[in-house]
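Lab notebook: predicted structure, single chain.

Context: the supervisor wants predicted structures on file for every construct in the current expression panel, including those that have not yet been purified. This is the next one on the list. No modifications to the sequence; it matches the entry in the shared construct table.
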Amino acid sequence: MKTLTMNNGVEIPVLGFGTFRTAQEETEKSVLTAIESGYRLIDTAEAYHNEEYVGNAIAACGVPREELFITTKVTFRAFDDARTSVENSLRYMRLDYLDLVLLHWPFGNYYAAWRTLEKMQEEGKIRAIGVSNFNPDRFIDLIHYNKVTPAINQIETNLYCQRQAEHVWEDKYGITHQSYAPLGQNRANEMFEEPIVKMIAEKYGKTPAQVCLRFMIEEKVVVIPKSTHANRIKENIDVFDFALTETEIAALRTLDKKMNVAGNPENPEKVEIAMSWK
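Prediction complete. Output recorded below exactly as produced.
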């Protein structure tokens, strides 16, 4: 597994496994399949209500803890007591430390939550801290009035929503860009039918999904595809035996529609969706 080095020196795998809205028992099975298939980054969140089942898979997988990279997120509803949220995540997953903890959406008292994460990083309970769904104005403000620069900004990023403008600002501040929904959620089929995607897939003997994931990895984006199907879990990690040409990358960049499916904190409809998560 290839890695990127974050701004605090911690290495993160460039491809991981997502568990967003995965049913609890299904989470355990799919995470175990992912780890057996070579994934080492596992992404969950307090709001997903499946951390305990991620922990079950970690305990059963047989891979040493230090070889895994475990991410969770503090829901904005818990920002006033982020310490309890993180401690609960550690307890649910039966871990002594977390590799990465993110603030989940820029709502509520995220300043208080960030300063709690800074303290817990100093205490050794968290190796790296970051944010999720923060637009550049939000993370720039956070950087200038706190001690620690976010290591990661996890935002919706895919072929139709490439977030190039956000990436420029992340690069300026040394923040690693991480993608959720890297295969476009309900727009995947449309994305996979793009002629250039199909042409590149045929050239390399790969699937359209693999081409889309490889494209983002080459754009220095950490991707966390999600699936509950064993064949797709294995397919999604099989992207390290080919490389795109500069011409192919340029052609794929032209497919950017700059359209979010879920992750836009300035869109009232998307905010309402986030607020509805239980």
